[in-house]
Design brief:
The complex is a heterodimer of chains A (about 220) and B (about 300). Chain A has about 220 residues and is α/β, with parallel strands linked by helices. Chain A contains seven helices and six strands; from the N terminus they run E-H-E-E-H-E-H-H-E-H-E-H-H. Chain A has a six-stranded mixed beta sheet with strand order 2-3-1-4-5-6, sandwiched between helices. Chain B starts with a helix and ends with a helix. Classes of the chains: A alpha/beta (about 220), B mainly alpha (about 300). At the A-B interface, strand 2, helix 2 and helix 6 of A face helix 2, helix 4, helix 5 and helix 9 of B. Chain A: It is found in: Membrane; Melanosome; Late endosome; Lysosome. Chain A: Binds SYTL1, SLAC2B, MYRIP, SYTL3, SYTL4 and SYTL5. Interacts with RPH3A and RPH3A. Binds MLPH and SYTL2. Interacts with UNC13D. Does not interact with the BLOC-3 complex (heterodimer of HPS1 and HPS4). Interacts (GDP-bound form preferentially) with DENND10.
């Protein structure tokens, strides 16, 4: 694991209230295990995982696998670590925003966390995946799925109901975030290479302008 | 321990950025002064020495990963520089990369979208094979885009800090010094030999490391199954020509814009003065100038 033999280093950061299961979700994803004992995270931590990403091309063909080294930052949700953890927001390429399905206050604080992201992340619209954790505790559920999905649609972010205890939807959530990041990377690289003012006066002028407008609108960086 | 992390590796004092200041404030290091806080507030907000120790250990682990990443990016940059150094044609009547004659009596050519030079179909890569209008890139510009993606430069708005491979320290200097003066006749055979040996050695590295993946991707796009052998043969022919033809392609081909501004990739591990990233700002697009590019490129290495 500690070698430089990969194609991309991608950094994600998990955030949310204290006790919602950020550390457990990342531990389940990297090691496939769950520890029911609650040990509060001190400030900041990170885990690593090597995955293979296969992009789906526009024509439906599956591209060649690319080796991704994931650095998964785990933050402390407590208020007294806030200024420490927000300092790490800028280096993260994507964010995993967690709340506890059995704790309505953690769901209400999702708005505050998104505001924190808009202030401290690398841009105002970073890629976020919302996760309602502890979906296995159905009898203690306090947040309806419709409510959470409605909030996610309002912010335009994907929503998954996860469980660190049994591993439900954890891989899907992180793979969705990785897909969003890789697509954003392709848009950024393609956009930055379009030379401005070099549109030649030929039969394809209108096509070039249309494609440029589309690409400009898509890229949020 | 904290002072060691924040002040190590750099004798010259550099003003710390906002994130370092925020981190120092919370860790009670640096020049942070809590003038207006009462003792009670200070005690509740301060981290205990044990907590500070845990956080610093995490930061050290992150720095070890960053070093590996910097070395990996250095290998990508070295590979790209080698490709740029080994161009053999003028990109107009000859293929930019292999120097093969193009046009009426020569091979068919394609036009690179980025550097706007001509290359033969073997030295070009179709960037969007599924669409109606084929979009071609020469292999150098395609490799440039790969470096931009794999190094994280798309995210940091510039090429992050990297460490060049140590096994070839002399060659790292070559691209910056040799193009500037006019080389005398005698050293040319030596440089040609060195280039040949290095190209052959690079072929070995390609077959064993992650570079082979991109080569496999390239070969799948090409029609002929044995491109490397044919290219090797063609590489030898132009070297036998006069020195003038070797000089002109180095001046002629313009490199695609590569932004080499430093960027903070790890909090607390770098003390270099990086430019503040504008939130939501557009990507920088400087005017392409050959001398400016090389100067910027050279600055980053030292």
């Amino acid at each position: 694991m500690s070698d430089g033999d990969y194609d991309y280093l991608i950094k994600f950061l998990a955030l949310g209230d204290s006790g919602v299961g950020k550390t457990s979700v990342l531990y389940q994803y990297t090691d496939g295990k769950f520890n029911s004992k609650f040990i509060t995270t001190v400030g900041i931590d990170f885990r690593e995982k090597r995955v293979v990403y296969r992009a789906n091309g526009p024509d439906g063909t599956v591209g060649r696998g690319q080796r991704i080294h994931l650095q998964l930052w785990d933050t402390a949700g407590q208020e007294r670590f806030r200024s420490l953890t927000t300092a790490f927001f800028r280096d993260a390429m994507g964010f995993l925003l967690l709340f506890d399905l059995t704790n309505e206050q953690s769901f209400l604080n999702v708005r505050n966390w998104i505001s924190q992201l808009q202030m401290h992340a690398y841009c105002e619209n970073p890629d976020i995946v919302l996760c309602g954790n502890k979906s296995d505790l159905e009898d203690q559920r306090a947040v309806k799925e419709e409510e959470a999905r409605e909030l996610a649609e309002k912010y335009g972010i994907p929503y998954f109901e996860t469980s660190a205890a049994n591993g439900t939807n954890i891989s899907q959530a992180i793979e969705m975030l990785l897909d969003l990041i890789m697509k954003r990377m392709e848009r950024c690289v393609d956009k930055s290479w379009i030379p401005e003012g070099v549109v030649r006066s030929n039969g394809h002028t209108s096509t070039d302008q249309l494609s440029e407008e589309k690409e400009k609108g898509l890229c949020g960086c | 321990m904290a002072d060691t992390i924040f002040s190590s590796g750099n004798d010259q004092w550099v003003c710390p950025n906002d994130r370092q200041l925020a981190l120092r404030a919370k860790l009670q290091t640096g020049w942070s002064v809590h003038t207006y806080q009462t003792e009670k507030q200070r005690r509740t907000q301060c981290l205990s020495p044990g907590e500070v120790e845990v956080i610093l250990q995490v930061i050290q682990r992150a720095e070890r990963l960053d070093i590996l990443e910097q070395q990996r990016i250095g290998r990508l940059v070295e590979r790209l520089e080698t490709m740029q150094k080994n161009v053999m044609g003028n990109g107009v009547s000859q293929c930019l990369l292999c120097g093969e004659m193009l046009g009426f009596l020569g091979s068919s050519s394609v036009f690179c979208k980025d550097c706007r030079k001509k290359v033969c179909t073997k030295c070009g890569i179709e960037a969007s094979p599924g669409q109606k209008r084929p979009l071609w890139l020469c292999k150098i510009c395609s490799e440039q885009r790969e470096v931009w993606k794999r190094s994280g430069a798309w995210f940091y708005k510039g090429l992050p800090k990297y460490i060049l491979p140590l096994k070839t320290p002399g060659r790292a200097d070559d691209p910056h010094f040799r193009p500037l003066p006019v080389e005398p006749t005698e050293p040319q055979p030596q440089s040609a030999e060195v280039s040949r040996v290095y190209t052959w050695a690079r072929g070995r590295v390609v077959s064993s490391d992650s570079d082979s993946d991109s080569d496999l991707s390239s070969s799948s796009l090409e029609d002929r199954p044995m491109p490397s052998g044919i290219k090797g043969t063609k590489y030898d022919k132009p070297r036998g020509d006069s020195g003038g033809s070797m000089e002109s392609p180095r001046m002629g081909p313009a490199r695609p814009p590569s932004h080499l501004s430093g960027s903070q990739s790890s909090l607390g591990s770098e003390t270099g003065a990086g430019a503040t990233d504008p939130q939501g700002g557009t990507l920088p697009r400087p005017e392409p100038r050959v001398s400016g590019k090389r100067h910027t490129w050279a600055t980053t290495h030292y």
